[in-house]
Amino acid sequence: MRPFVEDILNVKGDGNCGFRVVAMHMGLNEDSHVLVLHALINELKNHKSDYLPFYTTERRYKEIFDGLHPPTSKNGDAPPEKWLTTPDMGHIIASCYNRPVVLLNLPKMGGECETYFPIRSAPPLNPHSNIMCLCLIPEHFLHVKLKENCPLPPPSKEWMTHKIGVAEQWLFQFLDRQAAFDELMSKEPMPPNKPTNEHNPINLDTPEKPKQEIEVMDEDEEYALSLV
């Protein structure tokens, strides 16, 4: 996908990164991510019956709903249960802002790239103009700006199963771009693994670094730029 990426922008890695990306895409300051959370809460609350089939149980629905409420920590950092998760929240974002939301997953993450469409609304006159794209690297989201008419991943399996009425029209609007993505993936070589000293280890008596759980590391940003 790299030839079809116009730019990749980083956001603060405090556990709110996914919602910061959404805020940035919507033309807000990334620190306005709380406004995004409130919009998503209203979307999920006002259309609960539409989302229950996606989550299967009331318990899972409540977990997603509770996860959207802003964290209460003094510094605003979000614990893992309040991170943006996909596909759970991809459909909420797409429906709330009435636009496709694309998730790009790095090959080393083992996940799939997919597109989340609104679950109940018809496409606007120009559905290709406002595509939101997030790239998931280890425990962090980046904001990706895609080039016009670039290939797009297939829709999520959940959307294909539970979309409502006129929402099906989204699929027909993007068939050619999804076919281009499938063709691109069939030709794209597997990326090389990042170099390691696995077969020639160096043992040093130095203390182990604490695991970095939220903040994105520079090497992961560079890796994303080389593979997306």
From TrEMBL:
Mind telling me which InterPro entries this protein's record contains?
OTU_dom
OTU domain residues: 6-147
Instruction: Tell me the segments the record calls region Disordered.
Output: 186-215
- What superkingdom heads the lineage? Eukaryota
- Which protein is depicted? Putative OTU domain, FHY3/FAR1 family protein
